[in-house]
UniProtKB/TrEMBL annotation:
Molecular function terms from GO: G-rich strand telomeric DNA binding; telomerase inhibitor activity
InterPro entries assigned: POT1, POT1_C_insert
PANTHER family: PROTECTION OF TELOMERES 1, PROTECTION OF TELOMERES PROTEIN 1
Domain Protection of telomeres protein 1 C-terminal insertion: 75-218
GO term, biological process aspect, one: telomere capping
Name of this chain's protein: POTE1 protein
GO cellular component, one term: nuclear telomere cap complex
Length: 244
């Protein structure tokens, strides 16, 4: 567990970074006064690290605009789903040439109408685990149930002319237990009929990057970020960890 390891590092009087064994130790002051990039070997204490909780290290990164943002929590997603369920599914958008639609009304007090649009393909019947579907009016709990059975789930809502993605604060795609997000600044969402080009392929892979591309979404990547402050008797140095 990295968090426990970092705590141990803080308790030790000295932490030795063992890379570049062929190099002699360099003072931190010398490093901060030198031009980058260069390789050094240091002997220093770990004074602090951020964030303190490991789960806070995971962010969403856009490689196009280089922005970083927090991963939205389930409450945000649920709120958007509740808002979209207020818009009734448009029956004129059901059962097109590239997807089949099923609707039903829930038995709860609100009697919500849910519409699921199954993208047509051979595997829809033979291998449901390889199927992509679009859902209107579902709750977060209902969507998570569907992810256990089907390969890809896209939450959508009806317009007059086509199905469309929800607000990009919500994930535009769910695959297994992974939620995929798009950059609000760099994306230009297209209507769902853009997906028909992938559906027409002999064996669609339903790769998130391919789905994002045809839907005009700039895919955000999960990244792991931490900041370490290292000290020796000559000065301090901030070290940043950034990794996919």
């Amino acid at each position: 567990d990295l968090e426990l390891h970092l705590q141990r590092c803080q308790q030790l009087s000295v932490t030795v970074l063992t890379d570049h064994q062929d190099l002699s130790n360099t003072d931190l002051k010398t490093i901060t006064n030198s031009a980058a990039p260069q390789q050094y070997r240091i002997r220093a204490k770990l004074r602090t690290y951020k964030p303190q909780k490991l789960h806070q290290s995971v962010k969403l990164h856009c490689s196009k605009c280089n922005s970083l943002q927090e991963v939205p929590d389930g409450d945000d997603f649920n709120f958007i789903l509740q808002g979209s369920s207020n818009t009734a599914s448009n029956p004129e958008l059901h059962n097109t040439s590239w997807y089949e639609s099923v609707t039903w009304t829930t038995q709860d007090q609100k009697q919500r109408e849910i519409a699921i649009h199954f993208v047509k393909h051979d595997e829809m019947l033979k291998h449901p685990e390889d199927t992509l579907l679009m859902i209107e009016g579902g709750t977060l709990k209902e969507i998570w149930k569907l992810t256990k059975r089907f390969k890809c789930i896209i939450p959508v809502r009806s317009t007059e002319d086509d199905l469309e993605l929800l607000d990009l604060t919500a994930p535009f795609l769910l695959q297994g237990n992974v939620k995929y997000y798009g950059c609000k600044q760099c994306s230009t969402p297209k209507p769902m009929k853009s997906l028909s080009s992938i559906a027409a392929e002999q064996q669609p892979s339903w790769e998130p990057s391919e789905i994002a591309q045809v839907l005009g979404i700039e895919l955000l990547q999960y990244v792991f970020i931490m900041k370490f402050t290292l000290v020796d008797e000559t000065g301090a140095l901030n070290a940043y960890l950034f990794d996919y």
